[in-house]
User: Fold 3-deoxy-D-arabinoheptulosonate-7-phosphate synthase from Paenibacillus cellulosilyticus.
Amino acid sequence: KLASREFHPEDTVIDIKGVKIGGDNLVIMGGPCAVESPEQIDEIARLVKNAGGQVLRGGAFKPRTGPYSFQGVGVEGLIMMAEAGKKHGLLTITEVMTPEYVDVCAEYADILQVGTRNMQNFDLLRKLGTINKPVLLKRGFSATYDEFLNAAEYILAGGNPNVMLCERGIRTFETYTRNTLDLSAIPVLQSLSHLPVISDPSHGTGRRELVEPMSKASVAAGANGLIIEMHTDPDNSMTGDGVQSLFPDQFANLLKDLEKLAPIV
Ligand code: PEP
Ligand code: MN
Assistant:
C-alpha cells in the first residue's frame, strides 16, 4: 500500500512554500474554529504569526452536528482567510466537505482538511487525490488505524502524495472530555506509515485547560505538528468550540514551552 512504511521507508516531508511538514520538523497550525469576519481572522493571524506558528487554521464550511447550528460563512470566509494568511506570512488550512467545493478551497487555501465526519466520504477522498494541494486527513472518531490508513490510501491512489494524518480524538465511554485523544495513534501510525502525523488536542479533549498538557504529550510522543484552536474572544465565538479554544496569551506561552521540547521549524 502507498501509505505503508514498506512501500516508502523514508518519512514523507511535505514542503509548502518552504515550510516543511514531516521528518524532524514540528509545525504549528493555529486559529479559530470558524472564520467569522475579516477583522477576526486578520487579528488572529497576527497573533499566530507573532507566537511563532506557521499555518493559520479556520473553517469556512463547518460540519455541524445539528442542521440549525451556524454552518460557516462559506466562500467569503476562504477569501478572508487567504488575505489574512498572505498579509501575515502564514500558510492556511481549511476544511472541505464536498467534492464540488474542492476546487474553490484549493484555489484559496494551502492545505485542505478533511474532518472526522468525512473520513470515509470516498467521493471526497477520490476528488482530493486529483489536486496538487496537500491534504490533512482527520481520523474518524470511531475509525481504527487500518480504516484511517485506508482512507489516506484513497487520496494517495488518486495521485496526490501529500497527505498528513491527524489524530483528533476518538469516542470512548468517557464523557468528561469531548473525545479521548489517542496518543498511541501517533507512534503507531508513524510505524505503519511514512506520512506526517499531526495531533489536534483541541477537538481531542474539548477542554481548554487540557490543550497545553496534551500538546506537550503529543510532541513527546513524536507528533510532527499540532493543530490548535485559538480565539480572541472564545466566549463569543460562533461555534461551540470556544470552550476548547486557547486565549492568545495561552497559545503564545504554549509555543514558547514547545520550543524547549522540539524546535519549531
Ligand atoms: C475543526 O477542525 O474545527 C473540526 C470540525 O474538526 P473535527 O472534524 O476533528 O471535528
Ligand atoms: Mn472546531
User: Anything to note?
Assistant: The longest helix spans residues 38-51. The longest strand covers residues 27-31.
